[in-house]
Q: What sequence folds into this?
C-alpha cells in the first residue's frame, strides 16, 4: 500500500480538482467532503483507479490528537485493475455533530452495500444513496454499535484481557452480571407493548424493457430464506416476480452478524487470529494469511517471516483454495438440483486435505495456523510426504474427473450458459472480486497485481474467461484448482529447511502506531484487512473487506430478467459464505 | 442427444458405487489389519492408494487423531507427586481470546500469593478450541485434550469445567502426545542438568525446596483420566438414575434461565 | 438393545407397555430425520457428518428435510443471532411432535466465542428446550455423532405413557421473540417495562 511518504505536493493530481485534497500523509489523502465525488470521478476517469475495493468508517473518539470535529473518518481504498500495483487511500473526516458525506454510489456502484454497512454500524449518512437502510442489523435497532461510546450488554472493559479472570477469577456467568439476565439492553422508556416492527423492505422493481415479448402478470413478492436449502446458510432474498421472471431482488443479510469487528477491537492483536478463522469458515487459512499480512506491515522488520514459513503459508493457502473451489463446484450442482450426490463426490478430497490441516494445525476447519512473523508449528517429513501424495497423485485425477463429467454436461450447460451475465465493466464498477471478476474477463488477481508473500516466485496463470456467466465462473474455479495444484507442486518441491518463526513466539504484540491494509487473493476474492493501531496491545479499528459481502453487490444486477430458479444458481455461483458476508 | 447428460450422470453414480464396493471388499482383511487396535477401539487408516474415501464406522471405529488435534483444554498434574503443574501465572487467562479461563491464585494465611491455582475454570460453552492457552503456557501445564465425546444433557454446570474435572495425569498427556512429551521431557532434563551444575557451583540452595509436595490427589480425576477418547462409546446407559436425561417436556421458560 | 432396565420403576411390571415403548422408541430413534438447516461454521461439519466419510445414513438420518414439517430433529448448528432467533423459534413451532433439539457447538450452546457480541444470543436454550448439548468449536463429526447417540439413548428411555405430546395439559408452542430496539419476548413486556421506566441500568443511547 501507500507506505511511502506522501505529501500534498507530490500528488500529481492534487491540482486537478481544486480544493479537493486537504492534506496527505503516509496512510492516505485527506479529502474535502464536498469535493469527494468530483475527485473520485476524476481518479476513476483519468488516473485509472477504476476499482473501489474497500470503504469503511473509523470512529476516532478519544484517539490522541483527535477532536469532535474530526471524530469519524471514512476510508476509501481505490485500485487500478489494469495496471495493478499499490492503490490510493482517500479519507474523509466528518464531525460528530453532522456525520454526513456524499454517497459514491454514482461513481462506484460497488459502494452500495459498504455504505449501508457504515450507516448501520456507525450512523454515517451517505447523501444520495438510493436505499440507505440498516443491513446487518434490523431497522429499529437502538444505536450504532461500532461507535466507541456504544457498549454491548455484556460490556466488561474496553480491552482484553479482562481483569476479572486472574488472579482472583471466581467464575461468573456473564448473564449474572447484567440487569436483564441476558444479552439484551433496551433504551430508557422503551415500552414493548407500544412497539411496532418495521415493515419488510420491498425490492425496487425493474420493469422489463419495452417491446419485449413479455406477458405482464400480477406481481408477487416471494421471500426466500433465511432458512432455505439453496441460500448457502442464512441468507435471505426478497424477490419480486412477474410470472416466473424476476423483476426485483433485495438481498437481506445479517442473520449471522456476529459482531466480528466490535470483538476485534476488544481483542488483542493475537487474539484476533482464531476469530478470523470463523469469517469464511471454509478457508480459514487464507483468512489467517490476510490478517497476519496486515499486522506484519505494522510490525516492520519484526514481522518478516522466514523462508520456510512463507512456503508453508503459500502451501496452506493454496490447499484452502482447492478445498473451497471443490466445495463451491459441488454445491453449485446442488443448486442446480442434483441434490447432494455430486457434492458428496466433490468434497471427498476435501476430507483428506482437512486431515493435513488437522495434522499441521490441530483442527480441521479452524486452523489458527499463522502467527505474526511465521506459523505456529512446523510440519514434519511425514506430513510433506502425505501432502505430496495428495497433490501429485490424487488431486489431478479428481479435477480431471470434474472436467470429464461436468464441463460438457448438457444439463449444466443448459442451466449455466448465458445465465447471470455480468460484463467486465459492470463487474469492476460493482467491485466484484475473485472468480466473479475473472469470469468476466478481467485478469485481476492480487497474487499477480500486487504480489504478496512469495507468489512472485511461482509459475501460474491467472485464469480468466470471457463468458461472463455462471458457466464461466464454474470454469474459472476449475481452472484455479489446476493452477493451485501447479503452485503446490512447485512449493512442495522447493520448500527449504529452516526456522518457521521470526523471533520467539510472544503473546503480546508490540505494534507501532499506524494503519495498514493487507489483502490476499482468497478463494472468494480480495480478502482485505484494514487495521488501525494506536500503539497499544489492541487494534483501534479492525475492518474486514469481505469478498462474499461485496460480491453481493452484483446479485441484483445479475438476476433481473431471469427465472426464479436461476436466481439460486446465480447466487450459488457467487459462492458466498455467510460467516464472511455478515461477519 | 437430449437426455445423454442424465444417463451419463446416473452412470457416474453407478460406477462410483461399484468402484467403492469393490475397493472396500478387496480390502476387507487389510482394512482391519491396517487399523490400529487400541483400548478405545479400532483406529482407521486410509490406505494411500485407495481411490475413494473410507467411511469411518463410528462409534465402532475411530479416526486416528493427529497429535496436534485440539478440542477442550486439560490441566496436567504430576502423577508421582500429585502436584499440579500449573503455577497460576495467568498467562493462559490473558491470551484466551474469548476469555473463558478463570483462575483464582492460591494464598497463604498471610495473604501472600502461592504459585498454584485454588480454582480453575474453563467454560466449554465459550471456548473456541484455539489452543492459545496450551501454546503459551510456560510450564506445560495446560494442554489440549483429544477427547471429543463430551455431549451432555445439561449445559450448566455440565459444561463449566472446574479444576477437578480438567485435571489429568501427565501419563495421559504422554499417551496423547508422545513426541511432544519426549521433546518436553528432554528439554526439562537438560534444564535440570544445567541447574544442577549451576547449583553445585553456587551452593545448592534451589533444588531441595520443591521435594516435599503433598500427594494430595488420591481419587482418580473426574473426567476419565485414563481413557483417552474414552470407551463409553458403546452407548452404555448411565447406571446412575440421577444422571438420567431430563425429559424435554416443558417448553423453554420464555427466555429466563433459572 | 437390551434397554429394559431403564424403564421407570412403576412400568417394570407392565410388560406390554414396556415392549410397546421399546418398539416405539426403537423405530423413532432409528429414523430420526434432521432438518436441513445450517447456521454457521458448525453447519459445515454437520454436512461433513452427512457426507461420505461419516455417513449419517448409518443412523437412519440421511434424509435431511428442508421443511420443518417433516423433521424430527433440529440440529442448531452455529451461532444464533438475535436477527435469526425469531425465525428459529418459528421453525421449531412448525415442527411436528415429537421433536428434539440438538445444540451443536459452543455458539449454539452458550454463545461461544462470540458470546459478548451485541447481536448474539447466549445459547439457543434461552428460547428452545434443548435435549443434547455438544460442545466444541466446531465439534468434529465424531463429536456430533456422539451427541446423536446420546440423543438416541434419551429417546430410548421415554415412555409412551408419559411423553408430553400425547397429553393435553402441556402447552407446546413457544412465544416468538420480536426484534425491537433489541430482541424481546412479548410475554415479558411487564418485566421489561419495569426496568426501562425506572432505569439507571440501561444507558441512553445516541443514534
Ligand atoms: S496453566 Fe500455565 S499459563 Fe495457565 S496459569 Fe497455569 S502455568 Fe500459567
Ligand atoms: S483453547 Fe483457546 S478459547 Fe479455549 S481455553 Fe484455551 S485459549 Fe481459551
Ligand atoms: S461453535 Fe465455533 S465453529 Fe461452531 S458456529 Fe460457533 S464459532 Fe463456528
A:
Amino acid at each position: 500500500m501507500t507506505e511511502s511518504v506522501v505529501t500534498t505536493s507530490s500528488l500529481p493530481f492534487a491540482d486537478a480538482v481544486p480544493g479537493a485534497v486537504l492534506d496527505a500523509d503516509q496512510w492516505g489523502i485527506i479529502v474535502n467532503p464536498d469535493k469527494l465525488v468530483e475527485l473520485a470521478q476524476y481518479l476513476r476517469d483519468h488516473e485509472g483507479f477504476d476499482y473501489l475495493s474497500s470503504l469503511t468508517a473509523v470512529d476516532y473518539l478519544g484517539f490522541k490528537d483527535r477532536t469532535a470535529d474530526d471524530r469519524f473518518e471514512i476510508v476509501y481504498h481505490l485500485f487500478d485493475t489494469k495496471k495493478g500495483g499499490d492503490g490510493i487511500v482517500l479519507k474523509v473526516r466528518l464531525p460528530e455533530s453532522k456525520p454526513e458525506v456524499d454517497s459514491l454510489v454514482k461513481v462506484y456502484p460497488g459502494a452500495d452495500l459498504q455504505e449501508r454497512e457504515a450507516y448501520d454500524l456507525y450512523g454515517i449518512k451517505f447523501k444520495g444513496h438510493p436505499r440507505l437502510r440498516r443491513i446487518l442489523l434490523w431497522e429499529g435497532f437502538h444505536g450504532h454499535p461500532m461507535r466507541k461510546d456504544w457498549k454491548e450488554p455484556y460490556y466488561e472493559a474496553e480491552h482484553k484481557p479482562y481483569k476479572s479472570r486472574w488472579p482472583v477469577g471466581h467464575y461468573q456467568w456473564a448473564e449474572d452480571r447484567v440487569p436483564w439476565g441476558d444479552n439484551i439492553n433496551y433504551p430508557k422508556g422503551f415500552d414493548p407493548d407500544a412497539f411496532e416492527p418495521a415493515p419488510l423492505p420491498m425490492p425496487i422493481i425493474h420493469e422489463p424493457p419495452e417491446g419485449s415479448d413479455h406477458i405482464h402478470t400480477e406481481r408477487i413478492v416471494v421471500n426466500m430464506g433465511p432458512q432455505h436449502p439453496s441460500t448457502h446458510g442464512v441468507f435471505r432474498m426478497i424477490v419480486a416476480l412477474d410470472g416466473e421472471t424476476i423483476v426485483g431482488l433485495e438481498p437481506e443479510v445479517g442473520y449471522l452478524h456476529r459482531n466480528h469487528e466490535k470483538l476485534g477491537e476488544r481483542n488483542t492483536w493475537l487474539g484476533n487470529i482464531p476469530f478470523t478463522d470463523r469469517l469464511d469458515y471454509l478457508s480459514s487459512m487464507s483468512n489467517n494469511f490476510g490478517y497476519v499480512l496486515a499486522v506484519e506491515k505494522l510490525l516492520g522488520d519484526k514481522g518478516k517471516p522466514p523462508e520456510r514459513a512463507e512456503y508453508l503459508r503459500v502451501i496452506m493457502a493454496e490447499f484452502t483454495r482447492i478445498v473451497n473451489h471443490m466445495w463451491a463446484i459441488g454445491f453449485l450442482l446442488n443448486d442446480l438440483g442434483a441434490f447432494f450426490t455430486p457434492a458428496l463426490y466433490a468434497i471427498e478430497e476435501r476430507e483428506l486435505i482437512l486431515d493435513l490441516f488437522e495434522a499441521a494445525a490441530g483442527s480441521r476447519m479452524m486452523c489458527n495456523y499463522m502467527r505474526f512473523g511465521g506459523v505456529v508449528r512446523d510440519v514434519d517429513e511425514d506430513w510433506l510426504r502425505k501432502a505430496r501424495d495428495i497433490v501429485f497423485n490424487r488431486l489431478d485425477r479428481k479435477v480431471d474427473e470434474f472436467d470429464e463429467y461436468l464441463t460438457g454436461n448438457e444439463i449444466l450447460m443448459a442451466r449455466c450458459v448465458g445465465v447471470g451475465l455480468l460484463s467486465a465493466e459492470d463487474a469492476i464498477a460493482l467491485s466484484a472480486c475473485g472468480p466473479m471478476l475473472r469470469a468476466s474477463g478481467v485478469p485481476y488477481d492480487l497474487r499477480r497485481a500486487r504480489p504478496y508473500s512469495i507468489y512472485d516466485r511461482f509459475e501460474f496463470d491467472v485464469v480468466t474467461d470471457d463468458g461472463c456467466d455462471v458457466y464461466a465462473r464454474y470454469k474459472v474455479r476449475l481452472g484455479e484448482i489446476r493452477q493451485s495444484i501447479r503452485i503446490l507442486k512447485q512449493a512442495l518441491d522447493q520448500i527449504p529447511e529452516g526456522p518457521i518463526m521470526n523471533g520467539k513466539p510472544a503473546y503480546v504484540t508490540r505494534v507501532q502506531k499506524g494503519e495498514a491494509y493487507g489483502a490476499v487473493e482468497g478463494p472468494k476474492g480480495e480478502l482485505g484487512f484494514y487495521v488501525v493501531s494506536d500503539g497499544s496491545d489492541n487494534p483501534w479499528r479492525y475492518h474486514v473487506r469481505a469478498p462474499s459481502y461485496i460480491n453481493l453487490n452484483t446479485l441484483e444486477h445479475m438476476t433481473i430478467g431471469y427465472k426464479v430458479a436461476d436466481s439460486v444458481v446465480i447466487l450459488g455461483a457467487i459462492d458466498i459464505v455467510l460467516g464472511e458476508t455478515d461477519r | 442427444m437430449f437426455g445423454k447428460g442424465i444417463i451419463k450422470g446416473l452412470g457416474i453414480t453407478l460406477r462410483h458405487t461399484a468402484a467403492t464396493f469393490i475397493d472396500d471388499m478387496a480390502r476387507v482383511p487389510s482394512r482391519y489389519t491396517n487399523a490400529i487396535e487400541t483400548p478405545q477401539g479400532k483406529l482407521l487408516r486410509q490406505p494411500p492408494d485407495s481411490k475413494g474415501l473410507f467411511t469411518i464406522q463410528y462409534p465402532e471405529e475411530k479416526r486416528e487423531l493427529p497429535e496436534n488435534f485440539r478440542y477442550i483444554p486439560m490441566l496436567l498434574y504430576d502423577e508421582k507427586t500429585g502436584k499440579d503443574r500449573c503455577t497460576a501465572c495467568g498467562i493462559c487467562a490473558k491470551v484466551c481470546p474469548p476469555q473463558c479461563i478463570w483462575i483464582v491464585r492460591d494464598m497463604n494465611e498471610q495473604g501472600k500469593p502461592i504459585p498454584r491455582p485454588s480454582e480453575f475454570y474453563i467454560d466449554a460453552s465459550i471456548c473456541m478450541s484455539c489452543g492459545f492457552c496450551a501454546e503459551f503456557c510456560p510450564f506445560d501445564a495446560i494442554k489440549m485434550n483429544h477427547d471429543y465425546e463430551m455431549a451432555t444433557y445439561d449445559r450448566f454446570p455440565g459444561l463449566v469445567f472446574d479444576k477437578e474435572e480438567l485435571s489429568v495425569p501427565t501419563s495421559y498427556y504422554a499417551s496423547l502426545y508422545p513426541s511432544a512429551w519426549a521433546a518436553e521431557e528432554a528439554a526439562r532434563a537438560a534444564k535440570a542438568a544445567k541447574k544442577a551444575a549451576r547449583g553445585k557451583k553456587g551452593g545448592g540452595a534451589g533444588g531441595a525446596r520443591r521435594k516435599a509436595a503433598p500427594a494430595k490427589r488420591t481419587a482418580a480425576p473426574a473426567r476419565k483420566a485414563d481413557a483417552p477418547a474414552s470407551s463409553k462409546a458403546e452407548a452404555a446407559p448411565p447406571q446412575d438414575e440421577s444422571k438420567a436425561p431430563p425429559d424435554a417436556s416443558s417448553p423453554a421458560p420464555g427466555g429466563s434461565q433459572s | 438393545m437390551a434397554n429394559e432396565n431403564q424403564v421407570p420403576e412403576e412400568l417394570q411390571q407392565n410388560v406390554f407397555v414396556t415392549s410397546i415403548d421399546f418398539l416405539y422408541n426403537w423405530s423413532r430413534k432409528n429414523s430420526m430425520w434432521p432438518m436441513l438447516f445450517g447456521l454457521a461454521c458448525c453447519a459445515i461439519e454437520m454436512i461433513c457428518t452427512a457426507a461420505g466419510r461419516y455417513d449419517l445414513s448409518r443412523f437412519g438420518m440421511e434424509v435431511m428435510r428442508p421443511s420443518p414439517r417433516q423433521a424430527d430433529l433440529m440440529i442448531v448448528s452455529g451461532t444464533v443471532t438475535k436477527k435469526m432467533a425469531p425465525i428459529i423459534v418459528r421453525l421449531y413451532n412448525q415442527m411436528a411432535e415429537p421433536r428434539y433439539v440438538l445444540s451443536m457447538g459452543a455458539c449454539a450452546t452458550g454463545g461461544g466465542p462470540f458470546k459478548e457480541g451485541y447481536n448474539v444470543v447466549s445459547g439457543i436454550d434461552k428460547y428452545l428446550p434443548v435435549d443434547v448439548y455438544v460442545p466444541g468449536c466446531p465439534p468434529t463429526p465424531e463429536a456430533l455423532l456422539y451427541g446423536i447417540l446420546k440423543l438416541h439413548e434419551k429417546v430410548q428411555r421415554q415412555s409412551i405413557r408419559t411423553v408430553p405430546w400425547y397429553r393435553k395439559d402441556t402447552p407446546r408452542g413457544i412465544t416468538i421473540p420480536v426484534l425491537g430496539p433489541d430482541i424481546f419476548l412479548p410475554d415479558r413486556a411487564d418485566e421489561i417495562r419495569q426496568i426501562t421506566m425506572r432505569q439507571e441500568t440501561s444507558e441512553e443511547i445516541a443514534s
About this structure: Chain A touches chain C through 70 residues (CB under 8 Å). Chain A has two domains: 8-127, 260-582. Chain A has 19 helices and 15 strands. The two ends of chain A are 24 Å apart (CA to CA).
